[in-house]
Amino acid sequence: MEEFEPIRRGDIKFFETAFKANFKSLHAYAFTILKDEVLAEEMVQNVFYKIWAKREQLTIDTSLKAYLYKAVYHESLNHLRQQQVKSKYETYAMHHHQQTSHDSESKVGLQELEHQLRKALNDLPEQCRTIFQLSRFNELRYREIAEQLNISVKTVENQMGKALRLLRLKLVDFMPVILLIMNFLK
To answer: Which of 47, 95, 177, 184 could form a disulfide with 71 if both were Cys (CB 3.0 to 4.6 A apart)?
Structure first.
């Protein structure tokens, strides 16, 4: 339309007048969409900036006022959509980061537990360690262990009790993790 011709030609005075004449009403309109004074102002300024930056390519078939309202409307909605996408991404990223951190902490905790368990097992007296490993890792019963090692069942019971006491003392810092694992394996 001819109404835009001065802007298209780069008439800064006409552009300033159009800005001043429409700013308040456009700001109020943007505020009804965004519910934020500063953002509403920013959206109106963005619209005028884009008009000025692309003034030579503008092809407008409505009145200046109608074009400005439509432009502010779209600018505001685009901003809201961007904020929604950003918010969803931040929520996803935070959840993903927490999950990754938790997984990493769990792996480190389990690796440390495994290391400490190996160390504690190696510190057990030889017969005690052998009986514990046959019971827990090979899943043999006390009677089977006694027969295999050619010792009494009572000796197996005593050595297992000793092994468990010593392991509890050495792994006291890991008891919450051990209990968690035991509950998980049930």
So the answer is: 47
Instruction: Return the ∠ at Cα 127 (arms to 125 and 130), rounded to 5°.
Output: 105
Task: List the domain range (segments joined by +) for residue 169.
Answer: 124-185
Which pTM value belongs to this model?
Answer: 0.49
Is the CB of residue 33 less than 8 Å from the CB of residue 83?
A: no
Segment 159-181, tens digit of pLDDT: 888 888 887 887 777 666 555 55
CA distance 22 to 30: 12
Structural domains of the chain, count: 2
Q: Could you tell me the two tokens for 131?
A: 């009986």
Alpha-carbon distance of 64 to 19, in angstroms, equals: 11
Reading the block at residue 55, the tokens are 């003034």
Residue 110 inside a domain? The answer is no
CA dist 134 → 2, 50, 88 (Å): 95, 78, 53
The tens digit of pLDDT for each residue in 87-116 reads 777 787 777 666 655 555 555 567 777 787
Give domain status of residue 104, yes or no.
no
Query: Domain for residue 94, yes or no?
Result: no
